[in-house]
Fold these 3 entries.
Entry 1:
Amino acid sequence: MEKRATFSKTSVGVMFVLPQILLVFTFFYWPTGAALYWAFTLERPWGGGNEWVGLDNFRQVFADRAYWGSISRSIIFAGATSFLSMGFGLLLAVACDRGLKFYQAFRTVFVWPYAVVAPAAALAFRFIFAPEAGIFSALVKSNHEFWNPAQNGYHAMTMIIICYSWKYAAYCFIFFLAALQSIPRSVIEASALDGAGVLRRVRDIQLPLITPTFFFLLVISITDSFQDSFGIVDVMTDGGPAKATEFMVYKIYFDGFRGLDYSGAAAQSIVLMFLMMVLTFFQFRFIERRIHYS
Amino acid sequence: MIERTPLLNTATYAVLILGALSVFVPLWLVYVGATLTVREINIPELHLFPGDHLIENLQAAWARGHLGGRLANSLIMSLGVATGKVVMSAITAFGLVYFRFPGRMLIFWLIFITLMLPLEVRIVPTYAVAANTLWPFQSILDATGLSTVVATITGAQVALEWNLLNSYTGLILPLIATATGTFLYRQFFLTVPDELLEAARMDGAGPFRFLTEFLIPLSRANMAALFTIMFLYAWNQYLWPLLATPDRAGFGTTSVVELKMLAPTVSTNGGGTPDWNVAMAGCLIVMLPPLLLVAFMQRYFVRGLIATEK
């Protein structure tokens, strides 16, 4: 879409766009370019710039079993949190959309978890699941093996998944409810006249009509789970115990800033960038479909 | 719709009430935790009823976490990001929609692509840029040979340096360098009828006047939505402030990053049991500002969230 009427002074137009260009160049394109450069080079041990090493950094990263571990953990985390947060978000949105008495109050409450800062939620859930003081403490007292996220990797992962899903169910709820409410009333009324009950309408009219939102949220939750999990992991478990909750971004941070392996971290960044771009590409395709539906 | 479905209504209310409980119970447990003494909180049982040490714990958390200064940092950073984003998005979208200049579509796509890669995936080099923001420009000068030209003419070595670590600028700028709001504004400007510009021009308004007196008042609702979303986004940031504020004693950091110091993990002090009552009090303090913002701005917040993610 283009405007018919525009201003004619080119230089003024450029002036309006220039600040953003400078910013994007300095803080987006340059770092992205630097990541690419570092990924294909290696710093010489005695200084004197970087040496071109081709795909060596990638080979090294992919030969590292810890890296594959972080990928599979990220995927498990993405799958589990998407399932939980979208499932609960959808359930609550459908319940709210029925428009029963007091539903506005419930709608307000269901949005709150999204407004809770992720690291604060992480600290809260770390306390709630703390073996010494939280909800399981009484059970832990009689059986120490029952719950110990500081030692047991599965427990730590469960704790992080629950915390993240608690927050992001609210996010999914917002989108599902908006989608459900954008379905024209006439469609639902027509099916009611045809004798479809509430559940039948949900199954055969409302859910099929919001599939685009469903796919959109699926991609968004997967990409978000890659980037937004950092704060929660850092506050709750530090990636431990024994790397059991070390996800991709956490490993990049750890290798880059604690291990000072810029080239390795850069190669990992490039892999993650590639993954994100593939997912975003899918998202754009689904957005097209979404426009098509409405 | 008028239907009689008593059984289904009961089930729906059951779902709604269970949902509300799962929101409230964790928040309630945090509140209860913040009202107990260290001894009470470490008794291994479910703590469901609040004690009466809330004020003491809040004071302890405030002092231990230096929360006064940290909250101020969070506030300045969030206001900076939200304001910067609103202003930057508005003027960029204005330039892209209302002007024709060569390379306009290229610029559009260059800005658009930034939506694809969040800060987290390019975190290491972004940190390097923040440590010396003029590094890109220095490199360009070196690569083009301009710095040697300058060095031979003036005899002075070109060494540009501008460290943004431990500064509000450093916290804010990298978070503004994406296209989130630009597209929101672009979509909005495209829906503004052409006749408005024609009428304004006939009355003698230039581009600047048109932007400030026509478009900005028209986009007030969009602006509120974008501002709320960006404020929350910035307040929520963890990884970037963690890296961009290494000088904890001087500049400090944001309240959200400081939270971890209230309940240290293996990497920060070798583990051990944190003082959960103080940690929960700190948690309450840091949680509160964005919750209040959303409670008051819910309409804008929901609208902004749905619009910016499209």
Entry 2:
Amino acid sequence: MTDAAAETVTPAREPTWRERNQSSIRQARLYVRTFARNGSAMLGLGIVTLFLLTAALGPWIVPFPEDAAGSVHLDIKLQPPDAVHWFGTDEVGNDVFTRVIVGTRVSLQIGLIITGIAMLIGVPLGMIAGFVGGWTGEAIMRFTDVFLAVPGLILAIAIVGALGPGILNAMLALSLVWWPGYVRLVQAKTLSLKNSIYVDAARSMGAGKMRIVFVHILPNCASPIVVKASMDMGMAILGAASLGFLGLGAQPPYPEWGAMISVGRNYLPDWWWYSFFPGLFIFLTVLGFNLMGDGLRDILDPRHRE
Amino acid sequence: MSAPEPILSMRDYRLVFDTFDGIYQALDGVGFDLNPGESLGIVGETGCGKSITAKSILGLLPSPPARVLSGEILYRGQDLLKASERDFRRLRGTEIAMIFQDPMTYLNPVFTVGEQLVDAILAHQRAKPGGERMNKAAAKRHAIQMLAKVHLPNPERQFTSYPHELSGGMRQRVLIAMSLSGAPRLLIADEPTTALDVTIQAQILDLIAELIDDLNLSVLMISHDLGVVAKVCDRVIVMYAGHVVEDAPVDQLFNDPRHPYTRGLLASIPHPGRPPTSLSGIPGTLPNLYDPPRGCRFAARCPLAVPACTTAVPEKRHLSGNHLVACIRADEDLPAEAADA
Amino acid sequence: MLLFLLRRSLFMVGMLFALLIITFVISHVAPGDPAALAAGPDASAEMIETIRKEHGLDKPLPQQFLIYVGGVLQGDFGNSIHTGREVVDDLVRFFPATFELVLASILFAILLGVPLGVLSAVKQNTWIDHVTRVFSVSGVGVPMFWLGLMLQLFFALQLGWFPLGGQLDMMTDPPAPITHLYTVDSILRGQFDVTLEALRHLVLPALSLCFPALASIIRVNRAEMLETLNQDYITNARAQGISPLRIVGLYALKNAMLPTLAMIGLRFGWMLGGTVLVETVFDWPGVGLYAVQTAVSSDFEPIMAVTVLLGFCFMVANFVIDIVYGWLDPRVRGTT
């Protein structure tokens, strides 16, 4: 607003701020517009925001907080959805809505831990493989290939099988099968950056290896990592829920969505709400993170722009 | 001599693109005639609308975003702006053929040269009214003949090559062979040599000139390179920012350019005789075509500009016989320092 | 080409060996003592020791590994600690069902996904495109097991169109084995009523299993088609008067299939992994269900065998895809 006013008061002799920064303004506007115009990306952002809010406030806003950890009210078991119990009640009379909402926080933790550990393992390995290269790099990449050659869920089941079922072991197992993706991503990016002109320039000016890695390479790997991490949040939650469903992850009555469905399926078809709502929440969460990741990719990685 | 019926005639053609940034007014009242057997060049700098003009003739512009506001494009009496996709398919390759700028990207990478040529030849045959149905073997014979005709070495072997196995010059020969395999009357060549090495450019240009004579083609040659046009064309039109500013026989244009833009364009060609200090461009940049100036689009950069230039688009007028120019001060000489520069 | 196949085969052998190392490490660094688990809570130290000896668990690790690899090479994946059955017998028994399910799913995903992607690209920004896009974007996020349950709820229990689970009805005898695939065998044996029944049992599990893959295939194929249709060689093909159908279905699709193929390879891994979920939901007697049942009771040998088996399937699938890729794209043919 002020710029426009300034423009009309002083005749355009000197270039205004708006004119001088025309290209960066246009760029920023393009970013915002690309994201905002992308209806599905905005939907994703909305879902993720709602998800985070629910995770943060969950325990305080639910109608029956004591049901989260599993209490027993057999007198009201398996009630269909109504005004009091929006999503109905389960086989011991716990409010499904409460448990699903509290499950949001559980899922957020699961997603963050799995993606976090995967990044902690994958990013440095990828960076070493790309930057050091040679025999070391080759060894890392072959090792990564082997992990990528096994369907992730199967390998996770094998690991849980060895460690024993449980939510912690399930998260550990999923983290252990999740990192190879980051190695591939970071290695490819590092390799291309390593040979780029500006890294050559930095090297010729005497920049040390550490400086090159942390100042020139890591920040440039950030945007693809952010995009992948955003998508992986959803997929990691889905993976943990899958293990929970199989009885290998979180154990009932822990309020984890997959574990809830695992019990709820025994009460199909008459008490459908018990497994329907947790599944719906898994679906929406994965969808939200995927859509947001897609939108971010459109902005940060112009090559993939449709 | 009585004027022959033009094979192609564009009249007051106005075309815009609807984009997110607004309406891009690409072509504004473009018009010209192309007589049978004539070679017409269209010159102008990048963004002046020459390629868009060429693609319009074959109906190759995607719409939206392209939108025609007015005009007609008559090919042998048929208005191409009213033609359906079906009509176009009957014309493409068999009546009007086109060769493009970058031979590297205009051949499909996953099919062999032969597969693509035969496919095009069969499509041409199907499009010809009453044309005899050709079988694959005949199409293959024809394809190899065409490859020989464009002087591709070892045509039988190249027939089974993939595009990535050929050099740029060879690919352009293949594309020329493909375009001419349907024996078209009109050839549109859109910067056919720009993407090639200089030595190859000359060879391809010679080939095109040879084929024009050989096949009795009418040609529309689009180029930003006046040298290319001088070599192949009988007549030249000069475009600037979506306007035709000058239209003249090639000798006349080079010897006596009248539009200030044409004069600037010719002055910017480096000549071996002149000292390198005289190598100059035209100061200024192309006007913003989202919001084009009201009058002459060159006025802002023109050394002869007067206030009248900015109020109305100058009419095209005959200077002599067939020399047309769209400038109100075309009769005057440039000011001394501008002519010098 | 022969050299390429040879190199890829050698590579695969190396990968398989590495996979054996991984499964071996997983099963031997585990904190639990399988022998103690198998012997039960009341077992004496002697009994545990006996079981340990029986399974060779008392030998040093490298030696155990060599025994393990040697066994695998002879088709011996050890015994289930719980049932005492030979794991390889179980695999032979359960694998055909999984193979049939995965095969049906991948065919479903390709035969439906590619045309829908093309259609969506050609009809860009029409209602067909919008519906397809909503489907393809949301499909990736659907949990297979939940989808399976909901399909059961609606199509099996509510409408009764399809059976709830299993590979055939209880009372039906499977066709005499030739390929061990019920649908194929029943056709070969001329028992078409059994074929129909097997297909009806196959529909819901295959649909659940292929859903995420189908969604991503549509998505990638649509995006690639849009990109390809903008290429210069398409403009040239149009300028040559080649018919739009041929341009879309041949000139553009063959190029767009290359990235789509890579996606199919990737999603095939999801499908193999998804068998454990879908087989559990639909009580499908395959290796996935077998793996879950043994994993819950920490029965190592079967899970490791299934991991190796499905890893091997994934490698073979990627091998096949590489070959198809080379066949479609002349540019890679020359280099690899």
Entry 3:
Amino acid sequence: MDVSQYLSVFLDEAKEHLQSLNDNIMVLEQDPENEDCINEIFRSAHSMKGMAGTMGYTRMQNLTHDMEDVFSDVRAGKIKIQSADIDVLLQCLDAIQEYVDNITENQDEGTDEHQNIIKSLADIRNGGANGGEAAAPAADAKPKADAPAADAAAPGADGTTDYRAIKLDPSVKSTLEEAKAQGKKLYGITVHIQESCILKAARGFLVFKGLEEIGEIAVSDPNTQDIEDEKFEYSFSLVLITDESKEKVEEIVKSVSEVEGCECGEFDPSGAKSSEEKEEAPAANTPAPAANTPAPAANTPAPAAAKGGNAGKKPVGKPVVNRTVRVDIDKLDVLMNLVSELIIAKNSLISAANTSGVSNSNVNEQIEYLESVTTNLHESVMKVRMVPIESVLQKFPRMIRDLNKTLGKKMELTMTGEDTEMDRTVVDEIGDPLMHLIRNSADHGIESAELRAQRGKPEVGQIFLHAFQDGNSVVIEVGDDGNGIDAEAVKNKAIEKGVVSPEQAALLTEKQCVELLFHPGFSTAKQVSEISGRGVGLDVVKSKVESLSGEVTVKTKLGEGSTWIIRLPLTLAIIQALMVIIGEEKYAIPLDSIQSIEDVSPSDLKFVENKEVINLRGSVLPLIRLNQVLDTESTKDPNEDMVVVIARKGDQLAGLVIDELMGQQEIVIKPLGKYTNKCKLISGATILGDGEIALILDTNSIF
Amino acid sequence: MNELRDTSEVGELIQFIVIKIDDEQYGINIKYIDNIVRMQQITRVPKVDPYLKGVINIRGEIVPVMSVRMKMGLDEDVITGKSRIIILKTSEGDLVGIIVDQVNQVLTLDVNNIEKMRYDDKKGSDNAKFVGGVGHYEGGLVSILDLDAVVSEKESKEKASNAS
């Protein structure tokens, strides 16, 4: 079977399950008795097993299977998770991650069987198995039968139904037994209907109709009337008396559209009891059926790829059911481009209406309406592209846990604002820089336990990550209560590395020294450790953040800790900008980077080290004449007051001298084509209402 | 524009737009042409190579415009009413505009009537390196522009003719 078309779905879901496993195992470490967690882990492992089996990745299937076994024992209360077991489980996750990575790269899971992990998993189970249990093989057989049983119980417990839980009236029971005696086959069927299905009753009816053609429906749960009245969740069960094979029955059920899947197994009327605990139902069966019956019923790993994918999505007690659609990011890009075009068209319309002198109040009203619609549309599309930053942050607790062990330090990570949303493209890119900063805090920031004790700090080092939205940007702060940055050490290191000359260094402020950390090829780690200092320094963090039109700054206090602050724009495509005229040309300056606009008289100009500066409310700012930077002639009389845009880059300010202000406008950023993108001062271009092009100034590179 | 057709031999027919730069006629294979637009305001981009005149707006897309004259080492463009910007589509799918003095005609040439320039011939004068071949037609000769060489970012790039 060609499964390649399902590969991306498989990978997506495998990653989700891995993440959920990771999270839950971490919770389990703190709270080994947490039942929700154990159930969640079991379900994830189970789904992954099914998915891997469907896709033909047998090694991955084996490993997840063993993991599932462990948790089925845990669920059954046979064993308890010890803290040592957590390590094995995390190793197991790493191994699965390895498989997934291999598959991502070359669609092959690789050849590593991870026998040692499988062995360790078996050890966990044996260790917990009580005296009554025999040696490994026997122990293996029993939980296997148990696992499906436990799994089968779950849907029933969640308000959905299961054919094994159908309660039989004595009359029905006798009918069934009679039919069985006649040599007819009895099948229990549980049908799952897609949650998106609108006409559940109709689908149910079609299933009934289809099945009645080949046999007789003895009983259903809920009853026929309730199904017709849609008085059921997304699944229902029934018992069918027929001569046909099980495959035929399954085929009929699945041929009805919007049926997500069905569980079908032989039904033993004597096994089903009206009031007994559901868990006992399969166990009550004779050993032979117990091995057979639940196997197909337990889940549906093999039959079809689509089903394999869906298996994980069964409404098995998922706490919140998200009504979501997976959309290719490319399609969203197209949509965003169209919105951009619309905004340009709107701008054109406004400028056309102004120039042609159509100042009818009705026209203005309609234009204003159009403007509000396009702005809302832009915001909605932007929101669709936004995902919570959570997906990136999820892996950090695990990382800190591992770092605790490798570094021998005690650290704790607190995160807030995981639900802060950002553009998908930004979220995808920001993971590595954040990881680097956290590792940096763990490695260089937090002191050893002894030193912390000396300094009177709590034994456990705190690393924090706060994400929040601030106006049109998102701020992520990563910090620690560790050592802080020693500006002198940085300075000496910089001199040693030849980043600055000793003379230059002498002039640097403490702040500027710290900024040296962002210089390429700078690493203050005294020795190269596994955690950081692999040649990927803070300069990479900086360049990555800047490539996303963001900025990174650092606040530090020696002995008390440091905080790295990353500020990123909410969206990359459409921004608010201040339109200015320099010489004869129009330029746009992103509003985010503007602090204020001032009128400065030429007499207020001062010179420091031969450079023009102004004194603005007590702080001295360098003055940059944009016409000189951009090689154009200023049209203003040098004796007139200058219009100065105070731009901000991190904590630094500078005054940009322009000729004239045009006003604020919503602009669509267009890339400058090849050839012209070499100019660092220009980050892009935009098309104005009249079709003219204005270049967008990148204030960060002007400083 | 009148269309001339050489029908003496049968071969693959290729259409060329014949343009004038300085005093010479050049042919551009029509399949590389996206559009021909009148001269319009070009937005200057600071700090780029001097032959890049700036960017223009073509149907909402920002397209760089370069001066072939300056690349060829000729005098600065003199913009007249006949000046046009020819929007070319490069092999990577990017659009790039070139300024030409005049667009003359559409010419259909038989492949057999195009002489490839040999490598040695390309060494000559400055603008010879932009010529990929010479086409014969009833009205005379036309140099076929090697567009890869014209739009390349390097000042000189010797590449097999792309225009024929």
